[in-house]
Amino acid sequence: MSANWEPYRPIRDEPWDVRRVAHLHRCAGFAATYEQIQRDLRDGPDAAVSRVIEGKSPGAEPRAKFEDLSHELADAAIRSGDAERLKAWWLFRMLFTPDPLAERLTLMWHNHFATSNAKVDDLAAMHRQNETFRKLGRSRFGELLRAILRDPALLVWLDAPANRKGKTNENLGRELLELFTLGAGHFSEDDVKQTARALTGLSASENGFRFVAEWHDAGTKTILGTTKAFDPDSLCDLLLAHPATAHRVAWRICTTFLGQNVASDADISALAEGLRDHDPDIGWAVQTVVRSRLFFSETNLGAQVIGPPEFLVGTARALGMFDPPPSTLLLADWSRRLGQDLFYPPNVGGWAGGTAWLTTHAVLSRANFGAALLHGQVSATGAAPDLSAIAQRAGIAASVSAALPVFNDLLACGQLSDAQLKSIADRAGDSLTDAVAMLLATPEAQLA
Amino acid sequence: MQRRRRFLRNASLVALAPLVPTFLEKLALAAGPQADARILVVIQLDGGNDGLNTVIPYADPDYAKNRPTLRIPPKDVLKINDQIGLHPAMRGMADLLHDGRLAIVQGVGYPNPNRSHFQSMRIWQTARPDAADAQTGWIGAAFDNVRERKSAGPDAIYVGESDLPLALVGRRADAAAITGLEDLALHVATPDISPPAKDEGNVKAFVRRTMLSAYGTAHELARGSQSAARTPSSYPDTKLGGQLAAVSQLIKLGGGTRIFYASQGGYDTHAAQLPQHESVLRELSGAVKAFMNDLKAAGLSDRVLLMAFSEFGRRVAENGSLGTDHGAAAPVLLAGGTLKPGLFGDPPGFSQLPHGDLPMSIDFRQIYATLLEDWLNIPSAQVLVGNWAKLPLLTT
C-alpha cells in the first residue's frame, strides 16, 4: 500500500483542527453539529473516524425507534404509490440516521447501479433495491454484485426479462461489463454478445426475482478469452476475478470520498490491489480511504463539490434542525432542483457528480435553498433554525460578526477567510439570517 | 433597509460587470445582422434513434424483410420521393421540408462505430473518436478560440434536465445549464465572489467561476425579462416543446449566446419499440416545427440553424423483443431558414451490412465542419483534428 493510504496522524502542517473534523463529517456523512465537532476535536482522529466507520454517531432518536419509524414511513410510501414519499423516506433516513456513512454508501451504490423508477415504475422494487444497497453497501463486492443480478428493479430496468435464448437483448450484459464491473476498454463487442447469452434466464415478475431455466442459453460462450457454459453465477466469478473490477470499485470509492483528481492513478491501483487481497471487501476500502493521510491532506480539503442531499441534509443537520425537522418532502423536491432526483437517475451511467453538480440552475437553487431553509420555508410548520441559540451554545454573542465564524465552521469547513466573513457581515447588517444565507451561497459552502 | 438592498444589487452587479451586458448592448446585438449573431441550436436525441424508422427507405424490399414487425407500411410513410419518406408521426418536419426549411443528411456516422451509449455519445460530443479521455467538447473547444467577445452572456446554454453536455465544455468557453427560465430566478442576495486566484486548485477555481457566471446569468435575465416577449402558446405541451420555447425566449432576449443545446430522451428502444418511437418522433417533430415558425414570425429565421442528432442508429434487423439493439449510422436532421432543403448523403443500402449495421456515407465531422465554418465562422481544423470536406448545406 502506498503511503497515501496510511492512516492520518496529526502533524504540525496538518493538525487535527475544526477544518478536518468538519471535512470528515461533510465528506463521509451529512455534516456535524457544533457539539459533535467539539467532541471529535477533543477525542482525536482515531475515535472520531471510528465513530463514523462504525456508524455510532448518536442520532436524534434511539436506533430501534429510528428503524421502526423508517419501516412505517417506507410502507406508507409504497402503499401510497407516490414516489415523492419514497424519496422523503430516504431523506428522513439521511436526516436522522445514527449511521450517516451507511446512507452515503447507499447513495454511492444507487449511482453505481443507477436504476430509475421512470422505467421500473414499482416503488416496492425500488425500495427493496435501496435496502439491498444499505445492507450490502460495505460487504464484499461479490455479494453485492450477485444480489444486484437478482434484483427485480435492476433486471426490469435493463430489459433482462426480454433477454432470452436465441433472441438476446444486450442491455444488461453491456452495462454489467461497462458500468458495474470492468469499465470501458476492458472488453470487446463480442464479449457483450456472449455475456448477454450467459445472462439469459434472469427475470423478474411482480412476485420478484426468478430464473427461468427454459429461457437460459446453456451453450458454451467465450467471454474475455475463457470458454465454458457460462451462467450468471460463473460469469460473476469471472468478472470478480478480473483486476479491472477491483480497479473500478476502488475508483468509485475514491470519487465518492475524495476530491476530483486527488487520488492519482497509482493511488487507485494500490487501493484496487488491496481490495483484491481482501476478497473485494468494500468496507475495508472505505475505511482505508476515510482514515487515510490522503483524505485529511491539505490537497483534499475543500477539493470536493458536495452532492445535493449532502448539501441539503448536511445544512439541516449542522444547524441542529431535528425537532422540528425540515419537511422531507420539500427536501426531496429541493434535491431534484439541485440536480439529484432520488430514484430517478438521468441514465444508466448515473449522475456525473463532482463539479458537474454545479449547473447554473443548481447553483441558483443552492443559494435559494439556503434562504428558504433559514426563513422556515422548508418546513411544514414554518420552523426556522434557531441561529442565535447555536451561537449561544458556542459561548458567543449573537452579533453577526461574532457569530459568523461558528457558521463558517459548521457550513463551510471553516474555509472562508476573515475578510470574506467581514464582507458578508458588513452587507448583512444586523440580520444573522441574511448573513448565514449569504454564507451558504459562497463557493466555500459547496466544497468539503 | 431599502437602501442597503439596492446597494447589494449594485455591488454584485459591479462584481459581475464583465458578465452582465447593458440592455442597450443587447438590443444592438439582437438587431444586428452581423455574421457572429448567428445561432446554432443542437438537439441531442438520447438513446440511439432508429434512423431506419425515422427516414424510411419504404420502397426497398430489404427494409420490409429486416423489419417483419417494426416496418412502417408504405401507405403511412410521409413520402419525400419514390424511395424515401418520413415516419408518419413527423408531420411537422414534413411541413418544414415542403416549406424549404428542413434538410436531412442520411447515413451519418464515423469509422469503427462504438455501440456504447456513453462512448458513442462522447465521440459525437467531443468529435474525437481517437481520444477517449478528451475533456472538452466540439462546441466548447471551438469557442475556446473565439476571444473577441461581443456579448456577455455565456457562449452556450443547455436547456434540459441532464448534466451539462460535454459538447459544451471548453477550457475557457463558458456554458450554463438550466431546465427552464423559472430556474434562473435568484431569491437571495448573493455574496461577493472574488475571481479565482492563480494558485487556487482546479476545483476551487472552477466553482468560483461557475458560481460567478450563474449569479451573472440570473441578474441578466431578471433585468431582461421585464421587457421580453412572453412565451408564445403555439408550442406543444411537451418537454422538448418547453425547452425550445425557453430557447426561443433566450434568443429574443438577445443575451448574445450563440449556442443552445437541448436534449430529448426515450430513443433507446430495445423492446416494444413502435409506440415509444412514434411518441418521441411526434414530440421532436412538433416541437421543432413550432420553434421554427415562432422564429420565422419574429424575423429570426435567417439567424438560427437547428441540428438534431443521436449517438447511433439501431441494428437493421429487429431483435426478439419487438425492439432494436444498438447500431451505427443514422440520419441527422437540420432545420432553418437559410439551408438547402431536401436529402443529402446516400440512402440506406442493404447490400453490405458490417456487423448487421447500415454503412455510413457521411462522417459527422463533415457536418460539424460545415456548421462551424460556414455558419458560425469559426475555424474547424483544430477542433475536429483535420480538414473535413464540408457539405453544401447552407445557402449563405
Structure, explained:
The complex is a heterodimer of chains A (448) and B (396). Chain A has 448 residues and is mostly helical. Helix content of chain A is 57%, strand content 3%. Chain A has a two-stranded antiparallel ribbon with strand order 1-2. A two-stranded antiparallel sheet of chain A has the order 3-4. In chain A, helix 2 packs across helix 3, helix 6 crosses helix 8 and helix 20 runs antiparallel to helix 24. The longest helix of chain A has 18 residues. Chain A is globular. Chain B is an alpha/beta fold and 396 residues long. In chain B, the strands form two sheets. In chain B, strands 1, 5, 6, 7, 8, 9, 10, 11 and 12 form a nine-stranded mixed sheet that branches. Chain B has a three-stranded antiparallel sheet with strand order 2-4-3. The N terminus of chain B is likely disordered. The chains are: A mainly alpha (448), B alpha/beta (396). Chains A and B meet through helix 11, helix 20, helix 23 and helix 24 of A and helix 1, helix 5, strand 7 and helix 7 of B.
Summarize this structure briefly:
Chain A is mostly helical. Chain A has helices at residues 18-28, 34-43, 45-54, 63-80, 83-96, 100-112, 117-120, 123-136, 141-148, 152-157, 171-180, 189-198, 232-241, 243-257, 265-277, 282-291, 293-296, 308-318, 328-337, 360-374, 387-393, 400-412, 418-428, 432-440; strands at residues 202-205, 208-211, 221-223, 226-228.
SS summary, helix count of chain B = 10
Shape of chain A: globular
Radius of gyration of chain B: 22 Å
Helix content of chain A: 55-70%
- What profile does the largest beta sheet of chain A have? 2 strands, antiparallel
Helix and strand sequence of chain B: HHEEHEEHEHHEEHHEHEEEEH
Strand order of the largest sheet of chain A: 1-2
